[in-house]
Amino acid sequence: MPSRRLCRRARRRKKPTEDLEAGALTTELTLRSIGYALALACALCTAGSVAASMLFANTVSPIPITSAMTVAVATLFPRQIGRLAKAGTSMGVLFMQLFFGELVHATILGLKHYPMPPPPPLPTIY
């Protein structure tokens, strides 16, 4: 049986609908949320590429560094990143479908790319 203290806390706590009406936790898909999600993604990718080139002199792929930075940002700012969840999910699904559509188009339908010019002849060594 819950104690009185827990019951009081539950009564004092705001309902999620009140927070949504106040605009505190809006998770709607808007142009602004899409823009913020794209800007954050671009900033994280750029920072990961710069960090990889500065720390490892272009010997390491920036993907693990960018992934670590993304996890760190999501851990440090969960509420702010949570507001972008719907926009990120929607864009992820859209880009995934575009990727697989292009993959199917390129493989099954036989997309013909322009031929590359032949490489220059190798110098002969006497």
Describe the structure.
With 126 residues, the chain is an all-alpha fold. The chain is 67% helix and 0% strand. Residues 16-25 have low confidence and may be disordered. It is built from 6 helices and no strands. Helix 3 crosses helix 4 and helix 3 (31-56) packs across helix 6 (85-107). The N and C termini lie far apart (94 Å). It has helices at 4-12, 16-22, 31-56, 62-76, 78-82, 85-107.
Q: What's a concise summary of this model?
A:
The chain is mostly helical. Helix content is 67%, strand content 0%.
Query: What gross morphology would you assign?
Result: flat
Order of helices and strands: HHHHHH
What level of helicity do the residues show?
A: 55-70%
DSSP strand content? under 5%
Distance between the termini: 94 Å
Low-confidence stretches: 16-25
Topology:
Layout: H1 4-12, H2 16-22, H3 31-56, H4 62-76, H5 78-82, H6 85-107
Features:
about 130 residues; mainly alpha; 6 helices; about 65% helix; flat
